[in-house]
Request: fold
Amino acid sequence: TVYQYLNRKKLPPGVQELPGPWGIPYVGRVHDIPAKASWLKFYEWAQLHGPIYQTTIFGEVHVWISSEQIAHDLLSKRALIYSDRPTIPNLPDNRTSGDYLALLGRTDTWKRQRRLCGHLMHTSALDQLHAYPALERDRFLYLMARSPAHYREWIEQFTSRTVSRLSWGTAHPAQVLRHTTFGLLETISPSGALPNIIGFLRHVPEWASPWKQKERRRHELEDKVFRANVGFVGEMQGREAALPSFIGTFMSEKDEGEGTEEAMRVVGLMAIAGALTIGSPIQSYLLAMCHYPEWQRKLQDEIDSVLEGTCPQWEDREKLPLLRAVVKEVIRWRPPVPTGIPHAVEKDDIYNGYFIPAGATIHALEWGITRDEAVYPDAETFNPQRWLDPGFPTFRAPLTQYPNLNGFSQFGFGRRTCQGIPIVEQDLFLTMGGMAWAFDIRKQRDAAGNEVPVHWLDYTPLLIAKPEEFPFDAVPRSAAKMELMRNMYESAKAKEEAEKAVAKGYAFPDLGLVNQGKDIEDLVNKEGGRVASVESDRHVLIDVRDSSPEPGLSSRGDSSSEPEEPQSETEREAKPLLHEDEKRHLRKGKKEPMITGQGVPGAWKWL
Ligand code: HEM
Reply:
């Protein structure tokens, strides 16, 4: 065609273009890429065209890699030219603005920010992440026990509260963080904002572009939140009452005159990265346990026999190889970032006789990498044994150390590898271990005694993929464990109350969040109070009027609105646990209970 003729590059002798699916000139195969589970399509093409192939999308070359070896050969060994990031049409200054380290081009700003991020992470990891993940896990387990139907809410609260504590030494910005982070995910995901697919829409001026307007509002809010959080830590340091945090470490180590502006952005990005990603494998764990009850039993046997009834703590990790194998296998079985985060190549390159043009976007297709039968035999099956048995290619000894997540392909390659692995590792070990200790997760049964089906692979479409909501039972394994969970929750709560008392008086700015949540309120009104079909992360925004700090719960003293603890399965079925707002909602004649989110304004009022 004329387009291909005009754009052809003279290749050196013996070098050929990468194979790939045939496409419409300029447009490529956009029409073939599904909005949901696009990674399955990219993997299908890998099976047809090989572990490295290319597609053209609106004139731009995309290279897809489904082999860990090839990803290492290019992204790690040739990191000098493969460590850039592509421009995101809906966030066109992503390579230069310095706001989001993970999206920066290979610039000096990126190098400086990556160094700082590594240093702050390392300092906290040495101090076991200040025990924040365990504290939040203790809160999470009890909430799960009380109302498993709200599991996505509890999981997102756990991840965002933990990372808020790590970033700023307090859990209270967690809800706003979820709000702004989910917005950013939409802004940058290929299946989120439209300009990311139809690139020329990036040229529409802001007054005519709903995407640009939305992103500007989101960014302004994020900016206010980050500044308020840094101000909070400064104030607490002044009172000598600051709890450890990434930004606190920076502020106490910084040289005279060194600005906090950039550190604020780096820490903000770390919080963003931790707020939504880790929820994916926690939800996939629940899905895995529904489909593979035998692995839940084995995991419970390990925990029960090694720990003699106590709940797993981070210090127990050497003794619990199966738990570490489950963590790793959940991530392999259902990759949280299935299409990977793209790199960009800066110079023309040749690999095994194939030409890779400068400027191409390079995708390590994480889904494809985890389906490589040579590395992961019977790859579709969830099998933690592959990390524990010398008969499998992925086995590594000693089992007191391995398996672990360091160097795992699912965290990327080369100079751009993920810097959050210590947080991921600890969060997942504690939540998955805690849930195995506490609950039997299993499929529900209907009135006739038949199992209620649970989907196998219905995942949300954005860059970070999570299972769509599914029904399951989380049955506390004993009354004693239920009591222990209540005690763990109470002691986490008491700690938080003490923190609030110390922090009293810090004046946060008015964030105008009621207006920020208006679009969601409109959605709720339209949908009659329940939005069942949207991305889980939006649930946080559904009820911005609710100022209760924990949806479905109030303080223990107020028994009127406190749902009762589940005593037995039948009782729980007969008496669904409902929040007061839900009851009101049902009284108004709506059929479905609403899903409440922690009130954003309320979250800021508690200080
Ligand atoms: C299950 C959770 C997570 C997964 C699966 C994950 C995965 C990834 C992946 C695939 C990349 C891109 C690597 C590449 O370009 O080759 C990445 C980058 C990154 N991640 Fe994570 N991540 C997770 C959690 C976190 C957390 C909790 C943090 C908190 C600090 C974090 C911080 C980062 C940073 C800073 C980068 C960018 C590095 C750079 O561009 O130089 N991640 N992550």
Summary: The chain is about 45% helix and 5% strand. The chain has a mean pLDDT of 83. The longest strand covers residues 52-57.
